[in-house]
Write a structure and sequence with these properties.
Residues 291-300 have low confidence and may be disordered. It contains six helices and 21 strands. Helices cover 21% and strands 33% of the residues.
């Protein structure tokens, strides 16, 4: 028998926090201001550069397909590359926050979530009175191709991610495996500093398309046959840690705390998002109105 689930209180931030940078894809400058929000607001991006300041709730229903990043949109307003911000907010257990931005692409910084974590830590966390609902699978849910890439979530007593990365043609990356229980301090120490990576031929192709013109080898890890170009890794397995970061950010779009064990094999943003949708359809949502539910979804 699994233990009874204890729901935590919702949180927002104590005050505003601002970061500035530029978008990897567009190269355009952007300012991001995190603001406190009331209970049950969730995470909302507000496009203050657009007429009427339209907002985009950070929910999977608003996700739209974009290559190599996660984008959300509602009406004419869209916000791209939100996964690092969402991972930081989710892992630090900040549930209600308005994020005012003056551009449609979030800053890339050094390719990690660390700048967002530092800004949110400066702002401080403010507990709120209502509880945070949880979603958990009652059975194993899986999506993808067993031979290429796949991701699954199964019942568990905590929120844990096991990611298997494999680049057989790039020995400087190779096979990397990482298991991580998602906690605020663990995220700060083990995942938030892990940076975006890509291969040299991928970087060269993006530049040929007119993308990433302001991005240097110090902004992302670009691997050739000798390893990172003009850079060095922060962890021997930094690449798989960053993929884990992306999973957290994508699953944050569920809008709930997660309890389950995610196992991923070479997955990316698209499959991550598809599994979030499946979890919302087939998982069990637990609130303080149902205190006797077990993590398996069955009543006590």
């Amino acid at each position: 028998m699994r233990p009874l689930l204890s729901l935590r209180q919702q949180n927002t931030i104590q005050g505003p926090a601002i970061v500035t940078g530029f978008g990897y894809w567009s190269g355009m400058d952007v300012t991001v201001e995190f603001r406190p929000a009331a209970e049950d607001t969730g995470i909302r991006f507000v496009r203050c550069d657009l007429p009427g300041h339209p907002s985009v709730p950070a929910r999977i229903a608003n996700r739209t397909q974009s290559p190599r990043r996660t984008t959300i949109c509602q009406g004419a307003a869209s916000v791209g590359m939100v996964e690092h911000i969402m991972a930081a907010l989710y892992a630090l257990q900040i549930d209600n926050c308005e994020i005012w931005v003056n551009n449609g692409e979030m800053p890339g910084f050094d390719g990690s979530a660390q700048p967002f974590v530092e800004a949110l830590d400066r702002a401080g966390i403010q507990p709120q009175s209502k509880t945070r609902a949880v979603i958990t699978p009652t059975d194993t849910l899986k999506i993808g191709d067993d031979e290429q890439c796949w991701i699954q979530i199964e019942p568990s007593d905590d929120f844990r991610i096991t990611y298997h990365l494999d680049y057989p043609q790039q020995p400087q990356i190779g096979r990397q495996d990482f298991e991580f229980e998602v906690t605020p301090q663990g995220f700060r120490d083990e995942v938030a500093p892990a940076r975006t990576f890509l291969l040299r031929h991928e970087a060269e192709w993006l530049l040929q398309q007119g993308l990433g013109q302001r991005v240097s080898y110090q902004h992302v890890l670009v691997f050739d046959h000798d390893g990172p170009i003009d850079n060095s890794v922060r962890y021997p397995d930094e690449c798989v840690r960053h993929k884990t970061l992306d999973v957290i950010g994508d699953f944050a779009l569920a809008g709930y705390d997660l309890v389950g064990h995610i196992t991923a094999w070479r997955t990316g943003h698209r499959l991550n998002g598809e599994l979030v949708k499946r979890l919302l359809k087939h998982g069990k949502v637990l609130t303080d109105n149902h205190p006797q539910y077990l993590l398996s979804g069955k009543s006590a």
